[in-house]
Amino acid sequence: MKVDLIDILLFVLIVQMISFAMFLFFSNSRRMIQPGKILAFFLIAKSLCVSNFLSFRQSSYFYEHFPHLFYFGSSFTILFGPLLYFYVKSLLYRDFKFKPVYWLHLFPFLIHFSYLLFKFHVFDADTKRELLSAGTAVIFSPSVSLGLSIALYLYILIYTLTSIRLLYQYKRRLEDHYANLEQVYFNWISLVLYGFLMKWLADIWYLYEVYVNGDYQGPGLIVSRLILFLLINIMIFKALR
Hints:
Order of helices and strands: HHHHHHHHH
Helix content: over 70%
Structural class: mainly alpha
């Protein structure tokens, strides 16, 4: 198994995000109970997505030892947008509660996960290895795969921009009534939103490299993972402070 710097970085990121999520789950701050849990779910979803990416980078090793990890985290990418939106909304509005209608935001994730569940996840390890070796685990043509990727990133962008708009609408309303705003509080939300927006831009760069240039190891990949690594570490540092 050949391991390079990106693989090590991805593994460290998975450990950090899961550890940070556990910290948020067991935080004693009453003000942060609900937002903390939403952010924890976001980080777990992100760690599953990274583990899925890592399984394909180290496909020979995971094929032999952990075939169940293939495709498992791919559906959770769809949750990034809705969870980020719920996180910002729960921070801004103390009376925020998860209403039944909010499940509609998770509907695309449920459809995608259900498809992969019956297409791949329900089978045992040996059957999964057969599907992977035959290339029939998930069948999409390159054009369909590209279309789905573009739709996914547009989906995430819409939620991110909606969250940014929600933040600044709330801030303007407060400025009309209060002179002293919690600047650190707004800086934190801005860090999360703009940090993941930068990560989104780097992912688009990487997507271009893959589908246009056929380059799976280009600079877009490195920049995307470095942004995520720096963002998660800054978030952990600020949260612990």
